[in-house]
Design brief:
Helix content is 19%, strand content 30%. The protein has 361 residues and is an alpha/beta fold. The chain folds into two domains: 237 residues, Spore Coat Polysaccharide Biosynthesis Protein SpsA, Chain A; 94 residues, Hexapeptide repeat proteins (UDP N-Acetylglucosamine Acyltransferase, domain 1), CATH 2.160.10.10. The chain has a seven-stranded mixed beta sheet, with helices on both faces. Strands 14-17-20-23-26-29 form a six-stranded parallel beta sheet, with no helix packed on it. It is elongated and about 70 Å long. This is Glucose-1-phosphate thymidylyltransferase.
Length: 361
């Protein structure tokens, strides 16, 4: 049976990305100037998915308003609230039971960014008559993830969630394929972990201990769980580097006295004024103004931004932000409607800084 349905995550509070995610759903944060969840949707569509179900936080409509009904991708997208508060990602899947019905499906953690296609994983799952297939990736910190356990013949025999002493350096990434019914039948048989959550690893462990046909495929390209700000910046850089040359187009206007090196995209209505140096890969959003500044490499500037005097590299700047000061900004994530300016007197500056903000001067 071909997989035509998928569940994508859109809920959670992303506390490790505060203060940015106190006002923005993590899955709408831009990577290569595209909302993070769009990358997951595109991977699913390319693999043949026709219906996507996205979970949301109770009462939150930002994702639905931004993503729409899927017509942009030629598919159907529906949204559902995770009831009863956060109870683990296996609980998220079970909440979509009525949408999935008796069909095979993919579950995709939308904050996982991969380079390359997941279509070969679908094809192997569909041709191999598997009950479940897991995507694995080698990582430096497997204790943060579900870790696969192999026997002496390299056969997968168990999955442990966040073990203190991992047997190996592999992690089960956030891409899972399931055959009909089995997930939901198994959910009824597992219990919450010591963390008070229904762990996805408990589902997979139950499969393996009951002789279900669980396959795995290693992601040999690049995979990143964007749980931390540094992970997001790395993902942004790699996505920019991988973008084809033809997607970097200058739709804006540019003065004579500028310097452009490498792949640079400039959005409609943006103006690149005097004294600007752009070092690709760089994406400048729509209706921006840049003057006497140096941008890049590996930097995205959201729409409506005004940047003057600053040097910015390896960073993500969100919409409608003003930076007008001689600063060297590196490896930074700056939110929407931020103002970073130099006070015109010698009296010292005033600041309004939210919780968990980091300022290095």
């Amino acid at each position: 049976m071909k997989i035509k349905k998928a569940i994508l995550t859109g809920g959670g509070r992303a506390t490790r990305l505060h203060p940015i995610t106190t006002t923005i759903n993590k899955h709408l944060l831009p990577l290569a100037n595209k909302p993070m969840i769009f990358h997951a949707i595109e991977k699913a569509v390319e693999a043949g998915v026709e219906e996507i179900f996205i979970n949301t936080n109770p009462g939150e409509t930002d994702l639905e308003n931004y993503i729409g009904d899927g017509g942009h991708w030629g598919i159907k997208i529906k949204f559902f609230e995770q009831t009863g508060g956060p109870q683990g990602i296996a609980h998220v899947v079970n909440e979509a039971k009525e949408f999935i019905g008796d069909e095979p499906f993919m579950f995709y953690l939308s904050d996982n960014i991969i380079l390359g296609s997941i279509k070969p994983m679908f094809e192997e799952f569909e041709s191999g008559n598997y009950d479940c297939m897991l995507a694995l990736s080698e990582v430096p910190d497997p204790q943060r993830f579900g870790v696969p356990i192999f026997d002496e013949n390299n056969k997968l025999i168990d999955v442990l969630e966040k073990p203190a002493n991992p047997q190996n350096n592999f992690a089960v990434t956030g891409i899972y394929l399931y055959g009909p019914k089995l997930f939901f039948e198994t959910f009824e048989k597992i219990e919450k972990s010591n963390r008070g959550e229904y762990e996805i690893s408990s589902i997979h462990s139950h499969f393996l201990k009951n002789n279900k046909n669980v396959g795995y495929k290693e992601i040999t390209g690049w995979w990143k769980d964007t749980g931390k700000i540094n992970d997001m910046l790395i993902a942004n850089r790699l996505l920019l580097e991988e973008m084809p040359e033809e997607e970097f187009i200058n739709y804006g206007t540019a003065d004579v006295d500028i310097e452009i090196m490498g792949k640079v995209h400039v959005g409609i209505g943006s103006r690149i004024a005097k004294g600007v140096v752009l070092k690709g890969p760089v994406i400048i959003g729509e209706n921006c103004l840049l003057e006497n500044c140096e941008i890049g490499p590996n930097t995205t500037i959201g729409p409506g931004c005004e940047i003057k005097q600053a040097k910015i590299k390896d960073s993500i700047i969100l919409d409608n932000t003003l930076i007008d000061v001689d600063l060297d900004i590196r490896e930074s994530l700056i939110g929407k409607n931020v103002r970073i300016i130099k006070k015109p007197t010698n009296e010292g500056g005033n600041m309004v800084i939210g919780d968990k903000t980091i300022v290095e001067i």
